[in-house]
Amino acid sequence: MAYAAEPGALDAFFGTLNGYLASVIFFDVFPGAPDIPFIVAWLIVAAVFLTLRFGFVNLRMMRHAFAVLRGKYRTDADTGEVSSFQALTTALSATVGLGNIAGVAIAISIGGPGATFWMIVAGFFGMTTKFTEATLAQRYREVRPDGRIMGGAMEYL
Question: Residue 90 in contact with residue 82, Cβ under 8 Å?
Answer without folding.
Answer: yes
